[in-house]
Amino acid sequence: MDTKLLSSEERRTTMPENYIRPESDRPKLSEVSTCEDVPIIDLGLQNRDQVVRQVGDACKDFGFFQVINHGVCSETVERMRQMAEDFFKLPVEEKLKLYSDDPSKTMRLSTSFNVRKEKVHNWRDYLRLHCYPLDRYVPEWPTIPVSFKEVASKYCTEVREFGFRVQELISESLGLEKDYIKKVLRDQGQHMAVNFYPPCPEPELTYGLPGHTDPNALTILLQDAQVAGLQVLKDGKWLAVNPHPNAFVVNIGDQLQALSNGRYKSVWHRAVVNADKARMSVASFLCPADEALISPPKAVIDDGSVALYKDFTYAEYYKKFWSRNLDQEHCLELFKN
């Protein structure tokens, strides 16, 4: 069996041993209910104050929300979906040319999360790309399918603009100037993970990705339109977030939890897998510049509350995040005052 990529095999009928989680750490899918009250925020509303309020409530109560009328062209989104599908259908030998288990590479196809370190693997393959500045990174992107670079570039550019609009709303919801977050995070990096979760013989025994928070500032997820798999932790329970037509899922990462002094939650989330169908998702990450100093603004701690976290740079945080396992305790805990 070629263990390098799950997507290089015929459909499996049995579960390989090194994907089986210990019993105490399984998804318990029968206990998961659907999150019925996912905040759905319409950016097409004329009343900005109302949108700002909705964003603030969602960040505080859920740590994530879905966005419709987001301004990313529907054709751009559909072409990206199709491109992701076409990419993972490529012959194994084509895909293996891009394979690497070195997390420091700025373009790589890999599997699981951190294959070198983990004992139990996750049921996913993913293409990880750095996307900003485009002219630096696009030359190393895949050349097959032939339109990959063009389609993915357009998608990255539109999603980045959308992410900045969301950051402005989050800034205002904290009572800050609308460009506050963007200024503090400086020249933000951008990464993308195109995730492929093949059909899995025993979804109860493994994860696509186990529960984790994102180390970056903001994550923008394009879910599979048909196959659910995203779950979030709310009030101690895992809830399924079903795909909403033409919506992006936006979730708060660790940096915005620290910046808001814990007011906004970096949401614990995970991906589960499906016995019958493959699932695809495209996650885009906006990340502070390495030298950006993460510290709560005066306006957020003026009410007399103390700063929950020590000041740190994003580079310090990211290094710490990658030196541990994905499902260990929250990395922010290591920076508490």
From TrEMBL:
The lineage of its organism: Eukaryota, Viridiplantae, Streptophyta, Embryophyta, Tracheophyta. GO terms for molecular function: dioxygenase activity; L-ascorbic acid binding; metal ion binding. Residues 1-27 are annotated as: Disordered. InterPro entries: DIOX_N, IPNS-like_FE2OG_OXY, IPNS-like_sf, Oxoglu/Fe-dep_dioxygenase_dom, Plant_2OG-oxidoreductases. It catalyses: salicylate + NADH + O2 + H(+) = 2,3-dihydroxybenzoate + NAD(+) + H2O. GO terms for biological process: defense response to oomycetes. The keyword Transcription does not apply. Pfam families: 2OG-FeII_Oxy, DIOX_N. This is Fe2OG dioxygenase domain-containing protein. Its cofactor is L-ascorbate. It comes from Erythroxylum novogranatense. Keywords: Dioxygenase, Iron, Metal-binding, Oxidoreductase, Vitamin C. Residues 188-288 form the Fe2OG dioxygenase domain. Belongs to the iron/ascorbate-dependent oxidoreductase family.
